[in-house]
Amino acid sequence: MLVYLPVPLERVQLGAAFPVDVWSPDGRLLLRRGQVLQSTAHRDMLASHQACMTETDAQAWQKSLERAMRQQRARGVEMAQIANTHMPSEILDSDYLEGRAVDGGWLDLQEILRGLLYQGADANAPLARLEGIELKALSLLAGDPDDSLFVLFQALPELSLGYCATHALLSGAVAALTANKLSLPNDSQALLLRSALVMNIGMARPQDTLARQQRPPNAQQKQLIELHAPTSVEILRGFGTADDALFDMVHWHHLPDLLAGKEAAVAIDNLHLLNLADVLVAKMSPRTSRAAMTSVGVAKWLLMQNSPSTAVLRPAMASVLGFYPPGTYVQLQNGEIAVVIQRGLRANTPHVASIMNANGMALSKYVYRDTGAAGNPLFAVRAPLPSSAVHIRVSLEKVRRMRQQHGISP
């Protein structure tokens, strides 16, 4: 889950601007970067709300402080005075993670991407950070696609993590894996992932708001949704990139058919793949206002569409995910509730870990089930389950150990 660290309020000078977004521990935005610490009462109010920042921002801010302290030492300032240095009001691009230095797993990437999407046009070192996320994500997908899907589908209903970033990563993963299934070139896979990361940067914060909102979008939100694609392209241009293929992918990702017949820098199949992945993830995403579509429902949606332009793409995407993608939940014929841990030989026979018995009691020790095993009809899948029906947190480490023990991990 997203890691927040306390803001060192006692080291922020009154009248100084915060160079980071300030959050409460439950993910509510308290101050946008650039806003000023106005008074001691303002500081006390932020302290009462346990003001936090993302780990990425915290590391960059600490680097900016260390640089300021080094400069003071070089000028001969006394150590006692240096020790009381205020937190800087500016963070340089170089203080943030450089592109190829991005490390960790999918949730680490999710945190870095969330911060970047929220910062939008004001992002620090955006191209380097995006490159780092892209390279690491492609590496994780190539190393273990089932583990990648598991982590991302488990994160999808956790709206507190930031839906915009999870949606982007999962859409990119599904599109890139489908491109690989279709034997498309590596540069197509990279472009699909890169496009998914930033296709909604023009409405990242509102996208998270809409995911938690119970009422339908109002007029202002509808206009933002309608304009977010060209807005995203303008933000990307402001980053300094000149990638026309990326611009086309982002601009037309909701309306791929409108690009037909126009002069384009991108293959139309790539655009249709991004659109399919984007819509698929949206359908499988729970909202405060509605339940998510089941994985089987989404598979049927893919396979039953009557669209010649995506006739080859849709079954490939359905094959990549199966009827029950890793990280989603099912009920077995014996009544157990299980989490899917790996795709099986057939779309309807995944490998699963039973996490609750037939009476709904949580199992302290997960039980491996091969739903396609001959002679064990009670282990077959009865039905998919929404994440809202499972009220326990799944241990990723237990799942990974189980996959290793049963020889089903790469």
Strand order in the largest sheet:
8-7-6-5-9
Shape: globular
Task: Please count the beta strands (DSSP E, at least 2 residues each).
Answer: 9
Average pLDDT confidence is: 91
**Low-confidence residue ranges:** none
User: Could you state the order of secondary-structure elements as H and E?
Assistant: EEEHEHHHHHHHHHHHHHEEEEEH
Subunit arrangement of the protein? single chain
Supply the CATH architecture of the largest domain: Orthogonal Bundle
- Name of the CATH class of the largest domain: Mainly Alpha
Specify the structural class.
alpha+beta
Distance between the termini: 25 Å
Q: What is the domain tally?
A: 3
Helix content: 40-55%
Can you say what the CATH homologous superfamily of the largest domain is?
Hypothetical protein af1432
Main β sheet profile: 5 strands, antiparallel
Would you kindly provide a written description of the structure presented here, covering whatever features stand out?
It is a single chain. 47% of the residues lie in helices and 10% in strands. It has 410 residues and is of the alpha+beta class. The protein has a five-stranded antiparallel sheet. Strands 1-4 form a two-stranded antiparallel ribbon. The protein has a two-stranded antiparallel sheet with strand order 2-3. Strand 2 (22-23) and strand 3 form a beta hairpin. The longest helix is centred in the middle third of the chain and has 21 residues, at 219-239. The protein is globular, with a radius of gyration of 23 Å. The mean pLDDT is 91.
